[in-house]
Amino acid sequence: QGAVVKNGDTEAVAGIVMMLRGGNAKEVVSRVKSKVDEINQRGLLPNGLQIEPFYDRTELVDSALGMVTKVLLEGIVLIFIILFVFLGDVRSSLVVAATIVVTPLITFILMNRLGLSANLMSLGGLAIAIGLMVDGTVVVVENVFHKLGQTDGSRASRLQTILDATSEIAKPTVYGISIIILVFLPLMMLSGMEGKMFTPLALTIAIALAVSLAVSLFLSPVLCSYILRGGADHDTKPIAWLKQQYLRLLQLALLSEKRTIAVAVALLVGSMALFPLLGKSFIPTMKEGSIVPQILRVSSISLEESLQVEQEAMKLVSKVPGVKTVVSKLGRGESPADPAGPNESDPIVVMDPRADRSQTEIEADIRKALAVLPGIQVVMNQPIAQRVDEMVTGVRSQLAIKIFGDDLDELKRVSEELARIVKSVPGAVDIRVERLSGQQTLTIDIDRQAIARYGINVADVNELIETAFGGSEVGQVYEGQRRFGIVVRYPAEYRNSVETVRRSTLRSADGTLVPLSAVARIDLLDSPPTISRESGQRRVVVGANVTGRDLGGFVQEVQSRVSRELKLPEGYFLSWGGQFENMQRAMDTLMVIVPLTVVAIYFLLFMLFNSLRLASLIILVLPLASIGGVVGLFVTGEYLSVPASVGFIALWGIAVLNGVVLVSCIRKLREEGLKVAAAVREGCVQRFRPVMMTATVALLGLVPFLFAQGPGSEVQRPLAVVVIGGLITSTLLTLVVVPVLYRWFDDAPSAT
Questions:
Q1: CATH number for 458
Q2: What is the pTM of this model?
Q3: Domain total in the chain
Q4: Which of 483, 504, 527 is the last residue of a domain?
Q5: Cα(125)–Cα(174) distance, rounded to whole angstroms?
Q6: 301 plus 326 within the same structural domain
Q7: What is the pLDDT at residue 340?
Q8: Range of the domain at 472
Q9: How many CB atoms lie within 10 A of CB 700?
């Protein structure tokens, strides 16, 4: 049973198109639209009926892809501008720009071969990789450009210089890019929804970086030989000024080593103090542009009464500013995929894109509008998010507290007390308690002593009850070759009357008529509409959503309050689930992934330098890089989530690359015979520009994510905040603290 209401005043017939698993949503919906247009244009439906789509998933897909594409293009423009500022040469910038064109094209080809579709996360991965994929080429071109400025200009000399410059930088570049690829691969260990989301991102970044490495070592030198006409052994004016300021800072740091290290340690300790203050969440909620305010009533409500409530509710919702249209499905078809009774409704509220109102504001107004209706529970969600929550956690709330026990009355008492505690915690909205009452049940308990006195059998009583409610077949009628049973039962007005049932009579052994109430106890009881079980145990769910604060902090406060204020009977226990369960699982997995990533980085660094000391020196860059990431999250108010954790992993890869570029140069100078102090200063001078370029390019490639608006930007923003904030501190500390520490980690035989 069910009904469909549009804008609270028009009933309609609704259908849903289900896509086969593995299908391309955009292509499938496009073909469905074409078929719907054909049906409407040809008038295939009777009486001028038309099919009108009220929810189109591709609008969200197109909007999300448009946002990522816009960010991608903005990042490319910013990168090209910064390359010109650093190199001061259009031809050199064109060589690097070629990488930005060639690498994505080859990446798309490989993605297609691997069956990786261009979705929000894979394109988001490419947008993140835009700033990373030019790092190798930047280092190569910068070194070639620098070396060409020292040659005599002959073609043979130029080609040899390009070859030598590429060879000089090849090994640290290969290891540096390999480390960045490596740090993303463990993300494939994520399971559940977070794994589905971030595996395409990690794969896309890994593919793009592998392609960019090949392009930087094989294509870029060739392009340099054709495009570059010469080089420059000097810096552009902006870079020369920056280098001058940097060298002053470096000189102060080298003269005050202990003070420099103390400042770095103080910054690290300060960021560690901020870390517990960061809110924690699973994955930021992506605003879909449509809202589902699910409305729940008592299970015993009739379809007519439920429809009346729904029409009134939808009229209230349609009057909320910013709402374009609302179509409500009351009850759902009895399919195993999506069953629901007439007491449940799933309105889909489509927002007006022209309205200058946020989705959060509209949701708050809908809650206020529906608060005037008595006897209902409202759970706010979104069309796709709701289905994902149902499939992944089995509930539609961000937090689901499951109470397990045997006695239904006790479960009801505990659930109501728990709901009271949750509701009193700041940030709690959409409190939902699984109903354990509201279903009227007629019970007939036969008194065996009484029927024995009257000489009546139990079978006689059961036959009367069956005839009254279910009906008894008393004959058959034939219509041609078709046969129908003739069933006799009480009319509806008698079946629905308890008093009439009590007055129903049975014939005793002596022929007298005995009322049913004389031989049975008849009661109308309030019973649970459903009894939910999990792992063979009865359970009740108390659900809640969170607004205005982080999920992790909210759950922590609820758990603290529950442990103090709620005493569970013996044998009863709680289980915490919903999105919180996903967050816990993801964080537990990351607790394994992060140490493995650090160990893998350390192993590659040891292979590169064949030195435990230098590998340890570069590993120290990781906590220094994390300082900016933590501060960035704190300042912007973003939560520590799965995307933010992925941002820290990406940040470490970039920071290690810069550390490798700097330390490799210093070590090479030491091997050439320079003393430690001279090698450190000269290495910093030579590698200032490439380190600044790689960091700035990676940073600016992500800046558009900070200001992006549209579906999907919420997921990418924490990652961008961490990487941008971390690169600011890691670049500064890499160029200042690492040179200071190098003296202590130097492993050259003639170290002085």
A1: 3.30.2090.10
A2: 0.75
A3: 3
A4: 527
A5: 21
A6: yes
A7: 65
A8: 440-527
A9: 22
